[in-house]
Amino acid sequence: MKKKETRKTTGKREIPLGIKILSILSYIGAVSAILIGIMFIILGNVFSGNVLEEVRQGYTASLEYQQALQQDPLMTQQSLDLLLWMIDKMAIMGVFFIILGVVSFFIARGLWKLQNWARITEAVLCAFGLIIVLISLISGNFLSIFSLAINGLIFWYLIFNKNVLKAFNVK
Asked: Which long-range contacts (CB under 8 A, 24 or more apart) does 19-26 make?
């Protein structure tokens, strides 16, 4: 009598290569965002308070500022105010980047574990990216055609690729 050979399944699904790549890139993005956030918090604390006023006074006394002020006083003052506002808000931007990094980490982990919410979230983020790139293209930034291609390819891959849908148990 021959024994019937059966293969035991452990319940683990094969992770498609593209999902592995997207997951690894999301992990890299998460670490980068967290490091940028930490840097912004540190710089925000370094440039806070009296240092900002000293920067303003030092720059407004400079010859470059005086020359630029003569050419376009409104634009020069607005640019300086925007720069100083951004420096003043660096700590807040740092917290935002850290939150973004933590969210990216969980999306990367979800993709690696083939959790469908991560696939959908990543696809939605790609769709937002497509909208932003289209606006950029309309405004004349033709180099954003590369971003359009990348976001479009990732969106298509996550939503329509049969192997991805099968891996995520989407019917």
From this structure: 19/111, 19/112, 19/114, 19/164, 19/167, 20/112, 22/111, 22/122, 22/154, 22/158, 23/108, 23/109, 23/111, 23/112, 24/108, 26/104, 26/105, 26/107, 26/108, 26/111, 26/122
